[in-house]
From TrEMBL:
<dbReference type="Pfam" id="PF24536">
    <property type="entry name" value="NXPE4_C"/>
</dbReference>
<dbReference type="Pfam" id="PF06312">
    <property type="entry name" value="Neurexophilin"/>
</dbReference>
<dbReference type="InterPro" id="IPR057106">
    <property type="entry name" value="NXPE4_C"/>
</dbReference>
<dbReference type="InterPro" id="IPR026845">
    <property type="entry name" value="NXPH/NXPE"/>
</dbReference>
<comment type="similarity">
    <text>Belongs to the NXPE family.</text>
</comment>
<feature type="domain" description="NXPE C-terminal">
    <location>
        <begin position="331"/>
        <end position="556"/>
    </location>
</feature>
<dbReference type="InterPro" id="IPR014756">
    <property type="entry name" value="Ig_E-set"/>
</dbReference>
<protein>
    <recommendedName>
        <fullName>NXPE C-terminal domain-containing protein</fullName>
    </recommendedName>
</protein>
<dbReference type="GO" id="GO:0007399">
    <property type="term" value="P:nervous system development"/>
</dbReference>
């Protein structure tokens, strides 16, 4: 049944397309179309929908998920079940046919939102906003899958909170915001991608795992050679060097150099980005200021006034989905830790006294290392003669017995140059740590996985999770903090490799896989979404300070004795 669907899709696609040819030829006069022709459009679109409404919402699984299966280990039954569950949980709805005229795709400027409820509401309540997505013709969309983000804010108060977006799969969306402070609050809804662009991103994720490619330099004596490397390479092409990690089984391969042996690999580096990934037609769904990270305007009121809580109703802690909010530009977590401000270096030193902090991952955790070493003068960086921006890095304050280290995660890592000898997997590193109440592990592994099928990320996290479980079993008092992906500045080219949509999927998997473990999740997504500063791969210093304050608040919670 599922196998046959693509053929049906093709047939309907051509039927539909033939109906649209006239329109496509006369695209400039589209706006003047008579209502009758437009309703014919929708009859066709609706008939396509009814044919393909499958029971349940499993249809995205028809994608080929056997990516490079022969290069990794065969998953156990349990692993396969977990993977299936995770893939189902992140299944993304969208248009069921592709190739329709661009005019029928989602247009943020023709879409609108409507605030529900009275103009005055109370703290502790929930603000509901309905979003109606329309196409370039100004007609309602009939399916879901648009990627929207939402923020509620009061600029004068430095206050902001992320909204939860619910897709009704019919072109309508509901956004819910907890009301957490008094004042005039403004609703901000942004279309990151129309559903038609998400389809393209899904295709890239499955088909072009090598759109970022890697290389290695091999050297022996005066001889040096360079070859292409990746998690998976076409077989029967030329001989491969197999660098599969013996401990985790994480695959990594390079083409074998012509003259040198596989054991002469010296340097791993990012080869580059492949171009010409999408067609001219697909590119129309990735236009800055048209349909990429474009605000959706309000129909009617764009703000409400929030009044102090009504008696007995101020119970926003019930809101399980929101991690926290900004007030006076200070992050206020809604659960767990009470945030403290660590404004001066002596407060940080006091908190870190006797501690060993290990940071593992990409450049977004390296930012924390840089923050600590620049804001705490007594923490002296030890010169390991490492490559700039790559590491490993080490900083010590021997007087206060503080050690802070940073090491990047193993391949796929897109840094310009990493010595092969420094390519270590996070799981293996964690396995070598004693742990205990004086040890803190900070992990951020996400941005270099966006170009791979999500199964690759699931496998990597599974190995890290196992190592964390072993560590917490050895030393339950070890503090483990895991940082999620954050929003980024995207342009049409960049989005094909690093779209926030990839990060959204990565976060869903990350949170599901660490659920129930005694680890702290640091919600970098909401911390960047709720803040007024622009989205950046490396969030701005004020956001980093809030993250560090949150981590330090976890290490040195108020009212409790120091952890060691
Ligand atoms: C396009 O529209 C013009 C006038 O609006 C008409 O003469 C022409 O036949 C149309 N072309 C097609 C391919 O239908
Ligand atoms: C999925 O991909 C694998 C490897 O690329 C291929 O062998 C297999 O036939 C594909 N399966 C389907 C259903 O397309
Ligand atoms: C979406 O919302 C609009 C406006 O409230 C409503 O007219 C329309 O019926 C809704 N669409 C669906 C499919 O429910
Ligand atoms: C690479 O080595 C690993 C572990 O030794 C092995 O399981 C895997 O099958 C090898 N890959 C290939 C393509 O031979
Ligand atoms: C709230 O929105 C309304 C309608 O758009 C506007 O008239 C009003 O000035 C806004 N309130 C504030 C405090 O800006
Ligand atoms: C830290 O600095 C902020 C902003 O300057 C200030 O509002 C806050 O009171 C300070 N907190 C402490 C504990 O010094």
């Amino acid at each position: 049944m599922e196998r046959q669907m693509p053929r049906f899709v093709t047939v309907f696609f051509f039927l539909a397309l033939s109906g649209f040819i006239i329109l496509v030829c006369n695209i400039t006069s589209l706006e003047k179309l008579s209502g009758q022709v437009i309703s014919t459009f929708y009859q066709i679109q609706n008939s396509i929908h009814s044919v393909f409404t499958s029971p349940g919402n499993l249809w995205p699984l028809e994608l080929n998920h056997t990516y490079c299966a022969h290069f990794g280990q065969v998953p156990t039954v349990e692993e396969a079940n977990e993977e299936r569950y995770l893939l189902n949980s992140i299944a993304w709805p969208g248009p069921l046919v592709q190739g329709l005229p661009v005019e029928l795709s989602s247009d943020p400027s023709k879409s609108y939102f409507v605030i529900q409820g009275p103009a005055e509401q109370h703290i502790g309540g929930q603000l509901e906003v309905n979003v109606h997505v329309q196409n370039f013709l100004g007609l309602p969309k009939k399916h879901g899958g648009d990627f929207l983000i939402a923020r509620l804010h009061t600029p004068e108060l430095g206050a902001g909170v992320a909204g939860q977006v619910q897709d009704h799969h019919n072109g309508n969306y509901t956004v819910l915001f907890p009301l957490l402070w008094a004042g005039v609050v403004w609703v901000e809804i942004t279309m990151v991608h129309p559903s038609e662009a998400v389809v393209v991103l899904k295709r890239l994720q499955e088909e072009h795992y090598d759109r970022v490619f890697f290389k290695s330099l091999f050297r022996s004596g005066f001889l040096s050679e360079t070859t292409v490397c990746n998690l998976c390479l076409p077989l029967n092409h030329q001989p491969l060097c197999n660098y599969t990690d013996p401990e985790t089984g994480e695959p990594w391969y390079c083409y074998k150099p012509k003259m040198l042996g596989c054991d002469t690999r010296i340097i791993h580096y990012k080869g580059g980005y492949k171009n010409n990934l999408i067609t001219e037609y697909e590119a129309k769904f990735f236009k800055s200021n048209v349909n990429m990270k474009v605000p959706i305007h309000a129909s009617g009121m764009g703000n409400v006034t929030v009044l102090p809580a009504e008696k007995g109703l101020a119970n926003f802690k019930k809101n399980k989905k929101t991690s926290g909010f900004y007030f006076h530009n200070i992050w206020r977590p809604l659960r767990g830790t009470v945030l403290q401000q660590f404004n001066d270096s002596s407060a940080i030193t006091r908190c870190l006294r006797g501690k060993i902090i290990h940071m593992f991952g990409d450049s977004t955790v390296r930012q924390w290392f840089e923050y600590l070493t620049t804001s705490v003068p007594s923490l002296k960086e030890f010169n390991l003669h490492s490559l700039k921006k790559v590491g490993p890095f080490l900083a010590v304050d021997s007087k206060n017995n503080i050690l802070v280290s940073y090491r990047c995660h193993g391949p796929p890592i897109r840094f310009t140059s990493v010595l092969s000898s420094e390519l270590h997997y996070v799981a293996n590193e964690i396995d070598r740590i004693k742990g205990g109440p004086g040890t803190v592990i900070l992990v951020s592994v996400w941005s270099h996985f966006s170009t791979f099928p999500i199964e690759v990320y699931i496998r990597r996290l599974r190995h890290i999770r196992r190592a964390v479980v072993r560590l917490l079993n050895r030393e339950p008092a070890t503090l483990v903090v895991i940082r999620t992906a954050n929003l980024q500045k995207i342009d049409p080219g960049y989005s094909l490799y690093n779209s926030d949509w990839f990060s959204l999927q990565i976060n869903a998997v990350l949170c599901a896989m660490f659920k129930g473990l005694n680890v702290q999740m640091l919600d970098a997504w909401e911390m960047t979404l709720a803040h007024h500063l622009p989205h950046l791969l490396h969030p701005s210093p004020p956001i980093i300070k809030n993250m560090i304050d949150l981590i330090l608040s976890n290490i040195c919670p108020v009212g409790k004795k120091r952890r060691s």
